[in-house]
Amino acid sequence: MFKVGYDNDSIISFKGPLTVGLLSFVGNSLKSIIRVENSLAKRIFRIFIELTQNVSYYSAETIEVEKGIKSGVGWFIVKENSNKYNVTTGNLIIREDGFKLIRNCDEINSLTEKELRELKRRTRSQAIERDVGAHIGLIQTSLLSGDKLNYKVTELDDIHSFFTISVNIKK
Known about the structure:
The chain has five helices and six strands; from the N terminus they run βααβββαααββ. It is α+β, with helices and mostly antiparallel strands.
């Protein structure tokens, strides 16, 4: 389902701690690397930020990057071919979170754009009651791409799974 690693379609890839500084630098660099109309470049940038922030915030593997500040570890790759761009991320997760991610991604993939916008409003209104950041980010990613979320949760052991998510953005 996912071809991971550098190839001729790759624009940029990284594996390691996804710090706020790194994501800001790479995100801004993408804008200059990808020479397309401004609205498409902005969508690619926003999708990149949404998916990589999820790794930074929610990865089960973290590294202390500064005293008291931890950053999630994972990877990302941005690719381009003749008709689309693709942003893919992967990271270690707590196994139980995998079931929630599967449920959320399946729900998002089953909805129309109008239904997604309503789900985003409902989810945002629940933000005070519970942590819904990743869910809102996935909804936003689907809305921005206009495409389905391609994802895979691979169980590794009794505690951990590996989550990979990929989205296509048509040119």
